[in-house]
Amino acid sequence: MAAVLVATVSLSACSGDEGGDAAAAKTIALFLPESKTTRYEAFDRPIFEAKVKALCADCKLLYFNADQDAAKQQQQVEAALTQGADVLVLDAVDAAAVAPLVNQAKQKKVPVIAYDRLISGIDYAYYVSFNNVRVGEMQGQALLDALTAKGNAGKGQVVFINGSPTDPSSADYKKGAHSILDGKVTVGREFDTPDWSPDKAQQQMEQAITALGRDNITGVLSANDGMAGGAIAAMKRAGFAALPPITGQDAELAALQRILTGEQYMTIYLDIRAEAEKSAELAVALVNGQQPAAATTVDNGTAKIPAFLLDPIAVTADKIKGTIVKDGFYKASEICTAEVAAACTKQGIS
């Protein structure tokens, strides 16, 4: 059925414009929230754009990055609507505050797809993301497994470095992690990190080290790889004899290298290609008046939103070859620089 849908979308999207009438081109607008996290510019944007072009060569694409500025994103959405966007694919900077923007689109009969972050307070066409609570559960279980392997489960204190409070996914990650770790570890300090900023995460980790003492920290629950890098920098600066296990998310290149060399314990691999391509398929379908059935629904507090939720994958050093490299997310040559060549050889990555 998926193949039939794609074929149908491809044919219908690219017919009817044979006069070369640029003004009649269907317009899809993609809005991403920031560029501090590597994935958005390196993966989400190019994969989404390539899929749209493959399905609809005549479709016009508008792209905006808000640089973690909610007011800037509001201006971008309004500009896209003024330019005649037919569909908005919106990864909101502040997902709890963009309902008025979605309402502006609805008044113009422009459907909205919430990309990666669930928008609350209003009904809209689709939500495409990952099972975010499951992400947190995987991070929590991985940390618990690492602590148990070291004989540190129930000993010392764990630091939680959560994501941005304006991103509803952060609350889901936190919920999932706490559901695994509560009652099994002592949480010494917990932070919500504005803008998912690695710099702020480093400062938070420095505060935790000062408050708890270097030797009392047995693990770090970091919600993503960028912040894990900041926390690791703080621990190195503080002179940790051995770094405690630390989690991450997004399978960033630097994080994979840290995992191979033992500085970071694990990451969550999100199949961003599947997320971006599914969103592109839905956007092209919507500009052609189609509305594919969703796999499930998610309650955003106001309505049950048709949703496609993809499965996350927990990746430790021994899993990199069979997931990241196998899928072509990164090539072995990109991961295995001179500094990590020996670690790659140990894991059979070449």
UniProtKB/TrEMBL annotation:
Q: Where in the cell is it found?
A: Cell envelope
Q: Its GO CC terms?
A: outer membrane-bounded periplasmic space
InterPro entries found in the cross-reference section: Bact_Solute-Bind_Prot2 (IPR050555), Peripla_BP_I (IPR028082), SBP_2_dom (IPR025997)
Q: List keywords of the entry alphabetically.
A: Signal
Q: Name one GO molecular function term.
A: carbohydrate binding
Q: Which residues form the Periplasmic binding protein domain?
A: 28-290
Q: For this UniProt entry, what is the primary localization, expressed as one broad class? A: other
Gene3D superfamilies for this protein: 3.40.50.2300
- What name does this protein carry? Solute-binding protein
Q: Give the species.
A: Rhizocola hellebori
Starting at the broadest rank, the lineage of the source organism is: Bacteria, Bacillati, Actinomycetota, Actinomycetes, Micromonosporales
